[in-house]
Amino acid sequence: MTLVISFFVRLYMGFFSVIQRMTEGWLLGLAARFVFAAVLLVYFVRSALTKFGPGIAGLFEPTAGAYAQILPAMMEAVSYDTSQIPFMPYGLVVLVGSWAEILLPVMIVLGVFTRAASLGFIIFVGAMTYVDITGHHLDAATIGTIFDGDPTGLIADQRLLWVFLLLVLVLRGAGKISLDYLLVRWWYARQY
């Protein structure tokens, strides 16, 4: 019996060792960025585009909708008049948050400064979650809870999966099929 178990253990370990060697350094980062692009890229880019006004100047003048999404309680307190909100620090927070919502996902998908962009996006998701819960006063059903047996919670369940996906990129990087990899190879080639 020990020989049979030993055979299956070696078979199992051998099979998955081959799979790991074949995919080492490229598949995990590429797959994580692909899933991020397929599930979240369009959502965040569309959301970010609603936060900017028309033309080039609009890139530096967030819309009232941007203020309402990022600073809901403050906007309500000033009757949705953005001129009553000081640029420092609140307008700057809205501007940086709006830019982060578009730049970080694009950087992640392209695989450029992926670890930093993914860490920044984890912070972004945390801030977004805080604003959704405290500023937009989401109900308990929408927030959900982890370990409740119901994977449909928009905040607890979905965002936990988003953060895990981003954590993979923070810890493992974008992989060999990325701009990060090309930039590192270029940099080291320049040094020697």
Helix and strand sequence: HHHHHHHHH
Note the beta-strand portion.
Answer: under 5%
How many domains in all? Answer: 1
Q: Average pLDDT value?
A: 95
Helix content: over 70%
Shape: flat
The largest β sheet comes out as: none
The number of helices is 9
- The tally of beta strands, per DSSP, is 0
Low-confidence stretches: none
What is Rg? 22 Å
Q: What separation lies between the terminal Cα atoms?
A: 57 Å
Structural class: mainly alpha
What would you note in describing this structure?
The protein is mostly helical. It has one domain. Helix content is 72%, strand content 0%. It contains 9 helices and no strands. The termini are far apart. The relative contact order is 0.12.
Summarize the structure.
The chain has 192 residues and is mostly helical.
Descriptive terms for the model:
mainly alpha, membrane, DoxX-like_oxidoreductase, 192 residues, DoxX family membrane protein, transmembrane helix, transmembrane
Fold blueprint:
Elements: H1 2-23, H2 27-49, H3 64-70, H4 72-77, H5 87-110, H6 114-135, H7 140-143, H8 156-172, H9 179-191
Helix pairs in contact: 2-5, 2-8, 5-6, 6-8
